[in-house]
Amino acid sequence: MKLITWNIQWARGTDERVDPHRIIRHARQMADFDVLCLQEVAANFPDLDGNDRTDQFALFGELLPGFTAIEAIGVDIPDGEGGRKRFGNLILTRLPVAQALRHVLPWEAAATRNMPRVLVEAMVETPFGPIRLMTTHLEYSSPALRAAQIEGIRHLHRMAAARQATPRAPGPHTYAPTPNTASAILTGDFNMRPDDAGLAQLLAPFPDGVPPLVDLWPVLKGTEPHPPSAFICDQTYGPPGCLDYVLATLDLAARARSITYDIETRASDHQPILVEFDLG
């Protein structure tokens, strides 16, 4: 399974040109991917720099025939003309999706510029078994807000593991059983560097046998520093550094074969990550 995750900044490159087609072209150049996790996808949001009213969620689905598109909307506001402006995350996969879930992360109060954040989850069927694919985009303006979102993610992961340990009773129609698994991959723009206390919080052990998440970069690269995934060209928000990650439970981390940060492309202000798993 080849997975790419990328904060695409509504497909706006460092050349200030918004081009969703360029995102897909570059992702395809990176790999014949099975999973594409995107953050900062927009629909009908011309307020964003260089953007128009394109529904990027729909467009990306059209550009990848044979893929299932699962979106989660964090910002959903009126456009003043009877429509809605939407902004969030998107998973596209050609693997069978047994269930899709959309989680609103905790949104505490802070006197900073902040917005609602979400996590989108696709339960995919693989030769290994069911896997929970998740992608998210955490708050950058406040460590306190980010810490609350991290606890929300840990709570979601704990509940998923509990559902595997205690399956629900089967029933008809909306109560029909779906797969349960603690095996998970979490990707996204976490807006924190490798030495941030928030990342340690996210990777901390769980009680009661819930499998922890691990960062796949040190799993595969040892002590080699994380590559920069943001601020390579524009250092308004700080020096170049790693803000984007792929995490996995230990059973899947053992099957990760390679991880690559593409630090050359300028199709977004963040860099895409490619991870290959052996799930046979």
Automatic annotation (TrEMBL):
Signal in keyword set: no
The keyword Nuclease belongs to this UniProt entry's keyword annotation: yes
Gene3D superfamilies: Endonuclease/exonuclease/phosphatase (3.60.10.10)
The protein's name: Endonuclease/exonuclease/phosphatase family protein
Pfam families, sorted: Exo_endo_phos
Taxonomic placement: Bacteria, Pseudomonadati, Pseudomonadota, Alphaproteobacteria, Hyphomicrobiales
GO MF entry, a single one: endonuclease activity
UniProt xrefs under InterPro entries: Endo/exonu/phosph_ase_sf, Endo/exonuclease/phosphatase, GPI-anchor_lipid_remodeler
